[in-house]
Write a structure and sequence with these properties.
190 residues, mainly beta, Jelly Rolls, 17 strands, 15% helix
Length: 190
């Protein structure tokens, strides 16, 4: 199930989030290599955007979302989770940028901590920092009936979903889409 919550985050706080990431190096969005899953590659036909990685030990932003995701898990999913993956991504999509259909669940995460082995992504989240753009819809695919669901755009909306859910960001047609995404991880599924 896909859940969303309007956090009603004050605009000043969203501006502070964006100021906090302004000094983080920008990178071209990457995807896992089809040949070597533990490797990241640039493939603009699949993912075209700019990412800035916010690490827990260098930035307060991952901690801001941690309690929200844990609460969603406690109420709705009840998955065996350990922690919010150390790094979350601040992502900007300009005109024509997109992220084609994909799932976030992965069994080939590189360890980030001592003892951080054999973990899989279980819960994904996306937080919309703005809604003054066109296109760029976050869309989910329902494999049961082949239908799709588009999340209504609203600044400060938090969308939480199982990492195994197929989704995409459609091309932006006007403006810049800004969001934060991250993943809660846990031991392999039993």
């Amino acid at each position: 199930m896909i859940y969303s919550l309007d956090l009603d985050t004050p605009l000043d706080l969203i501006k502070y989030i964006e100021e906090s990431v302004s000094t983080i190096p920008k990178e071209i969005g990457q995807v896992h290599s089809p040949k070597e899953k533990s490797k990241q590659v640039t493939k603009k036909s699949i993912r075209s955007c700019v990412t800035q990685v916010c690490n827990m030990n260098e930035c307060w932003i991952p901690g801001f979302f941690d309690s929200y995701i844990r609460r969603f898990n406690q109420v709705y999913y009840r998955y065996d989770i350990t922690h919010l993956r150390d790094s979350v991504q601040y992502i900007t999509y300009g005109v024509d940028d997109h992220y084609d259909w994909h799932i976030d669940e992965t069994t080939y995460l590189q360890p980030q901590y001592k003892g951080d082995r054999d973990l899989v992504r279980k819960i994904s989240f996306s937080f919309l920092c703005n809604d003054d753009y066109e296109g760029g819809d976050l869309e989910f695919y329902n494999k049961q009936d082949g239908s799709t669901y588009t999340v209504p755009k609203k600044r400060s909306r938090l969308i939480v979903f199982p990492s195994s859910t197929r989704h995409r960001v459609k091309p932006v047609t006007n403006g810049i889409r800004r969001s934060i995404v991250g993943w809660m991880v846990g031991p392999p599924w039993k």
